[in-house]
């Protein structure tokens, strides 16, 4: 069997060595949001410990009968440091020995580790969220509190968000690198060998482009469609109905907060002291095209009592294109505002 090419060896070696970082950064995190904790609570899971607001979370969970989270309940903490060490050594040996069979084995081991880790986390979450104390001060018949495996989930008045932390993303990158190495070794290096010999494009360049494209796509964030008549405003808790005035915030973690009025969104930003530069999206509906979300930084705003928006913020947003074609006579008494001025008046 042919040996692994140098570009694949380098990628595997660097990605494997990057696992050393997982000894010093958390692997996973669970964030909690609630009206009484607008700044949020977080629990971080490391290779061998827990950190964050664990004691506060335990205090809250006591009221609904959930067990206290302790490091002793995770026997995995004694195994994980050695398991990661094994993966580092195996990856380096794969690169050193140039063995394609070892590369395939490394891929299988990484997939197996991911499946086992997710199942183990799901199993713990299921038992933790379903085995409730009969002496709990607050009991909701039929209610379970299993945290989400990945992504967002509502638990009573809390929103829970579960996702990889820095260490987890290191593992994701390792997996992507190994997959790209497999694709290159068993497909591109053979199928495209002749074209590359005649082309100025090097295999290493293509390999890097594919890797970066895959990683960037996995990190893409987007706005979340507003379900009119079903979703509630995050600030005033009223059901969002009017498509002309709804707005939305999407955090850098992909969590979406929806509002029935622009004034509610601005007040939510201020109350929770959110830095706009850290948000992925800050959008509002185009008044002339109800239901179409536009960026607040490029929108044109008009303020008038005649708008009669749901919470009487009475500010409407227009895209530059829709404003240019709008009937100006209809808004003759309205005052034009910039986004900064909108923020200032609420």
UniProtKB/TrEMBL annotation:
TM regions (residue ranges): 12-30, 79-97, 104-122, 166-188
Name of the protein: Copper chaperone NosL
Domain of life: Bacteria
Xref: PANTHER family: HTH-TYPE TRANSCRIPTIONAL REPRESSOR YCNK
A Pfam family of this chain: NosL
Protein species of origin: Runella aurantiaca
InterPro entries per record: N2O_reductase_NosL
Assigned keywords, A-Z: Membrane, Transmembrane, Transmembrane helix
SUPFAM superfamilies: NosL/MerB-like (SSF160387)
């Amino acid at each position: 069997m042919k040996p692994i090419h140098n570009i694949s060896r380098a990628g595997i070696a660097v990605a494997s060595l990057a696992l050393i970082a997982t000894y010093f950064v958390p692997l996973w995190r669970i964030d909690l949001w609630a009206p009484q904790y607008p700044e949020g609570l977080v629990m971080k899971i490391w290779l061998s410990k827990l950190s964050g607001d664990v004691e506060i979370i335990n205090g809250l969970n006591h009221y609904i009968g959930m067990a206290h989270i302790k490091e002793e309940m995770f026997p995995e903490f004694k195994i994980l440091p050695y398991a990661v060490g094994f993966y580092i050594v195996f990856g380096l040996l794969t690169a050193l020995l140039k063995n394609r069979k070892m590369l395939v084995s490394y891929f299988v081991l990484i997939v197996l580790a991911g499946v086992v880790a997710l199942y183990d986390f799901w199993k713990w979450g299921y038992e933790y969220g379903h085995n409730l104390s009969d002496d709990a001060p607050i009991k909701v018949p039929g209610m379970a509190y299993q945290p989400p495996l990945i992504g967002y989930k509502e638990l009573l008045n809390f929103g829970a968000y579960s996702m990889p932390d820095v260490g987890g993303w290191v593992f994701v990158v390792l997996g992507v690198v190994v997959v790209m190495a497999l694709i290159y070794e068993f497909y591109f290096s053979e199928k495209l060998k002749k074209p590359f010999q005649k082309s100025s494009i090097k295999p290493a360049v293509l390999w890097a482009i594919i890797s970066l494209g895959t990683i960037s796509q996995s990190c893409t964030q987007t706005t979340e469609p507003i379900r009119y008549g079903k979703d509630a405003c995050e600030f005033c808790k009223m059901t969002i109905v009017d498509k002309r005035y709804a707005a939305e915030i999407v955090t850098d973690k992909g969590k979406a907060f929806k509002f029935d009025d622009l004034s509610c969104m601005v007040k939510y930003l201020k109350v929770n002291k959110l830095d706009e530069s850290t948000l992925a999206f800050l959008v509002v509906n185009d008044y002339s095209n109800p239901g179409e979300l536009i960026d607040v930084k490029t929108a044109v705003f008009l303020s008038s009592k005649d708008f009669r928006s749901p919470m009487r913020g009475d500010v409407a947003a227009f895209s530059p294109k829709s404003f240019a074609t709008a009937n100006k006579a209809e808004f003759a008494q309205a005052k034009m505002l910039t986004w900064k001025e909108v923020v200032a008046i609420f």
